[in-house]
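Hi Y.,

Following your request, here is the sequence exactly as I used it, all 742 residues.
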Amino acid sequence: MDLVPALREPLEQPLKSVLGPPTAKVMAEHLGLHTVGDLLHHYPRRYEERGQLTHLVDLPMDEHVTVVAQVADARLHTFASSKAPRGKGQRLEVTITDGSGRLQLVFFGNGVHKPHKELLPGTRAMFAGKVSVFNRRLQLAHPAYELLRGDSEESVETWAGALIPIYPATAKLESWKIGKALQTVLPSARDAVDPLPGALREGRGMVPLPEALLKIHRPQTRADIEDARARLKWDEAFVLQVALARRRHADALLPAVARRPRPDGLLAAFDDRLPFTLTEGQQKVSKEIFDDLATEHPMHRLLQGEVGSGKTLVALRAMLAVVDAGGQAAMLAPTEVLAQQHHRSVTEMMGELAEGGMLGGAENATKVVLLTGSMGAAARRQALLDLATGEAGVVIGTHALIEDKVQFHDLGLVVVDEQHRFGVEQRDALRGKGKQPPHLLVMTATPIPRTVAMTVFGDLETSVLDQLPAGRSPIASHVVPAADKPHFLARAWERVREEVEGGHQAYVVCPRIGDEEDEPKAGKKKPPAAAGETDAERRPPLAVLDVADHLAKGPLQGLRVEVLHGRMQPDDKDAVMRRFAAGETDVLVATTVIEVGVNVPNATAMVIMDADRFGVSQLHQLRGRVGRGSAPGLCLLVTEMPEASPARQRLGAVAATLDGFELSRIDLEQRREGDVLGQAQSGTRSSLRMLAVIDDEEIIVEAREEAAAVVAADPDLERLPGLRTALAALLDDEREQYLEKG
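Below is the corresponding structure, written out as tokens. Let me know if you'd prefer a different format.
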């Protein structure tokens, strides 16, 4: 693709040639900024008016902050210390205020002289540093600062009303230094190539890109900031949606074999065996999938389903439809435990229909094969042979399916379970094993808000299963504050005993295994405690092996307790799961290997230790392992974090709702959005600097429609060189491949 190099030159200039190597090096290493264009797109996080001071009461702990405030008081103390035994040590304490709260600054040693002269009461300045707590008070130790002096000609009103941009900064480069660097490159904003088609920009009344860049960095009024934000959000949403629309357009041109089930085939026989009727949601989603499979272009569909909504059944019916039509279907699972679990549940659901070529197999049966990395040589050889000859219609496996040796007779459908666990290359490698591109069904039990689905999975059609099958029970969730109320934890273990005595089983989940490999190295000193850090944060996370031992000898003595974790031998893992599923184990102490797909309807209770160490969506996933039968489920979230901490608020949110979509919004808001173009794949900083996926739903929906229209009219963007330039900047090589491979 010709990217019209002439258009890119001014903003492509490396920062080191404009700002000098030392500053450019810090910007590259700490902020990921390499060119003039990168710096122009490093937008202020917020703005301060000189006459209007920051709310010091809202400062976040342990974050690098920039505040604008006034010195209220400054005192120099002398003290004796090991370095200054004669009482010659000096400490300068400066109190600053913003009218709403006060914050203490502290300087030591030789560092006191300059601030002692400059930070006099009444002085206003910008201060930057890391917020910590000392003697229960917030403080900044040795903050960097920049005095705010009005020019002599400037009237007090003008000075007080000027907007100061506060940039995302680092300890190595304060906000005001970034502001000065931007002053240097800002004239280049005039050369910025506008990616939006003129008609679109004018139709929506948006300012041109050069003007938006000038207004975002040097606003005269709050209205300037709003104009610039509205424009820059549109850029991000539109360019990203054009990239996705081009993917959808290219996919629609690929050939695929249409796969239609036979009216009297394997799928019909399977449906006749089912002891229950499908939910309305399952029927609707199945129809969407079957309609896609019947076309001569590859299906690209995302199936979202709440934990326990019956996604696996829907996927299995799609796989059987493909086998009916003479093809093979492969399901890719992220872990061996999950692959084995899927294999077991699929063969159980299919019964004699899974015994193709065997004595007692049904007439139209097929073979269901498991392929994982740890299988014995003979079993593996047989599985590979069954795939190559087409004897096996259904294969379930881990990434072992992707290896070069694995050949399919006629791969028609790939089902990827828990999409977020797989790199794009892995998905692509499996899709490449079809004679023509196979149909693709991606499943996730992590609910994704609609706008995120439009941006992250914008190339996939989406189906949502939000009904739980009849007979599923509600799950009660409670936070157990183990440090504040130790008797609550004792009661939690009593509840586990009560569940077991009632004929049920329980999980206990821990963040760590506790064998040598994940222990801190002996002799390594712990780092000193960070200010404000609690004991719960300082100690290592609780470990499966320690907790299982403690429970078996203490609170759960006499119960059958077993452990399960990712570093066990696959056969041992499978044996533990089989015993638990058969009811031969009362309590399973495990890591998150049980997070997805493990289905034991008799397990009714789950205790999650150090629950604050897990993300919101992960806790929701784990909780979905209980309440899968007719008895109600119980999930206890154990934490030692103090009541007012963000971690406790997060756990409170999980306990308060079973709505996965609501929790995924909370999760996203807390994690901030990461890189919607697959941070796991490219490891780069977010491509979204202005657009908030959760808040800007309207913009994303409209940008998607506009992008689809633009790509339909001009797939190669021949008439829109500015848009091609912006796409090239967004899709560096790694992201380009990410989008290409889907």
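The longest helix spans residues 222-252.

Thanks again,
Q.
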